[in-house]
Design brief:
This protein is an alpha/beta fold. It is 41% helix and 13% strand. Strand 1, helix 1 and strand 2 (32-37) form a beta-alpha-beta unit. The longest helix is centred in the middle third of the chain and has 24 residues, at 165-188. The termini are far apart. Bound molecules: nicotinamide-adenine-dinucleotide. Nicotinamide-adenine-dinucleotide (NAD) binds at residues 12-13, 15-19, 37-38, 49-50, 75-77, 102-106, 123-124, 127, 148, 150, 201, 203-204, 206-209. Nicotinamide-adenine-dinucleotide binds next to helix 1 and helix 4.
């Protein structure tokens, strides 16, 4: 018996990184997957996004685990495309039990202009709303909605780091909206026992973190910081003094939230941050 046997889970940003890790962990516990990813770059984002080959690799690895997967290229900013992908996935796989809305970008950089702010908000926040909108008509009572925020959305925005620029502000703004949206949606869906929870990771060892713009964000004191330079700063983000968690660590929390083990857990802001939030001694958030 798997922990999510025969559930069908719709995952955005599934081509690589955390999205792929979630797909594989859920498949290893018996789920079938509707995998969606843009698979092309966004101009304001200073590092490459996933490729069609990455999405194919997710498909290959899910199938290797003996589960079914339907993959589509779609932009989470495009409501019609997301709806079409989910409708097709449900037609093929027969049902939908959960959503993991986690596609994201971090368009940091000092010279990227207001477009970077807007792109962060439309991908990282509107993209979550669109994924939920596309899934909701298919979700039965008792379903699970999981959205990926970030510790950046739970702590005060960094306004004094020129390396982050408008896209950095857009990122933390969008992630705050994710936290707030999850809270409000959870209240709306209690009557149907649909759980809505957020996962807020610290640094995760993916392409988003391992990018030059991220190295600059962590080492604004250096002109061309390397990963080695950034590695010296990464641990300051966590309380445990580790530089990052692995995508598979976050996938364990997502598995719990998708599984029936969390049937009475809703409206929760679940931090996978190795103590980064409590280290900052913030006020408890209002929601
Ligand atoms: N890596 C970190 O340090 C970190 C920390 C906290 C939160 N997060 C969040 O975790 C989530 C997953 O990021 P990751 O770390 O796996 O990075 P990643 O860059 O490896 O994965 C992001 C995925 O989203 C896809 N994507 C981007 N824009 C899209 C769009 N418009 N439509 C569809 N797909 C799109 C990308 O192609 C990529 O496959 C994001 O929401 C990110 O903000 C990451």
């Amino acid at each position: 018996m798997g922990r999510v046997d025969n559930k069908v889970v719709f995952i955005t940003g599934a081509a690589r990184g955390q999205g792929r890790a979630h797909a594989l962990r859920l498949a290893s516990e018996g789920a079938d997957i509707i995998a969606v990813d843009l698979c092309e770059d966004i101009a304001s984002n200073g590092y490459p996004l996933a490729t069609p080959d990455d999405l194919d690799e997710t498909v290959r690895q899910v199938e290797k685990l003996g589960r079914r997967v339907m993959a589509r290229r779609a932009d989470v900013r495009d409501r019609a495309a997301l709806k079409a992908a989910v409708d097709e996935g449900v037609a093929e796989l027969g049902r939908l039990d959960a959503v993991v809305a986690q596609a994201g970008i971090a368009p940091l950089g000092p010279d990227r202009g207001p477009q970077a702010f807007l792109d962060a908000v439309t991908v990282d926040f509107h993209g979550v709303v669109h994924a939920v909108e596309a899934a909701l008509p298919h979700l039965p009572d008792g379903a699970s909605i999981v959205a990926t925020g970030s510790i950046a959305g739970l702590i005060p925005a960094t306004t004094d780091n020129p390396a982050n620029g408008p896209g950095g502000l857009g990122y933390s703004f969008a992630k705050r909206q994710v936290a707030s949206f999850v809270h409000d949606l959870a209240t709306v869906l209690t009557a149907r026992r649909i759980r809505v929870n957020a996962v807020h990771p610290t640094n995760v060892n993916t392409d988003m973190l391992n990018s030059e713009i991220m190295y600059q964000s962590f080492r604004p004191d250096l002109e061309n910081p390397t990963r080695e330079d950034a590695l010296a700063s990464f641990p300051a983000t966590t309380g445990f003094g580790i530089p990052y968690v692995e995508p598979e660590d976050v996938a364990e929390t997502v598995l719990f939230l998708v599984s029936d083990a969390s049937q009475y857990v809703t409206g929760v802001q679940m931090r996978v941050d190795a103590g980064g939030y409590v280290k900052r001694r913030p006020q408890l958030p209002a929601f």
